[in-house]
Amino acid sequence: MKSNFTSFVRKETLHILRDRRTMLIVLLIPVVLMVLFGFAISTEVNEVRIAVVAPERTDGVREAVERIVRNDSFAFCGYITEDRIDPMLRTGRVDAVAVFAPDYDRRRLQAASGTPQPPLIQLILDASNVNTAGTAAAWLQGVLLGEASPQTLFETRMLFNPRMKSAFNFVPGIMGLIFILVCAMMTSVSIVREKESGTMEVLLVSPVRPFRIILAKMIPYFAISCIVLILILLLARYLLGVPMSGGVAGIFAMSLLYLVLSLALGLLVSTIARTQVAALLISAMVMLLPILMLSGMIFPIENLPRFFQWVSAVVPARWYIDAMRRMMIQGASMADVWVDGAVLLAMAGLLLGVSFRKFNDKLE
Amino acid sequence: MNEAVISVHELTKRFGDFTAVDRISFEVFRGEIFGFLGANGAGKTTAMRMLCGLSRPTSGCGRVAGCDIVRQSEEIKRHIGYMSQRFSLYDDLTVRENIRLFAGIYGLSRRETGTRSDDLLRRLDFASEGNTLVGALPLGWKQKLAFSIATLHRPEVVFLDEPTGGVDPLTRRQFWEMIYEAAAGGTTLFVTTHYMDEAEYCSRVSIMVDGRIRALDTPAHLKQQYATRSIDELFRLLARGAQRSE
Question: What ipTM was estimated for this complex?
Answer without folding.
Answer: 0.83
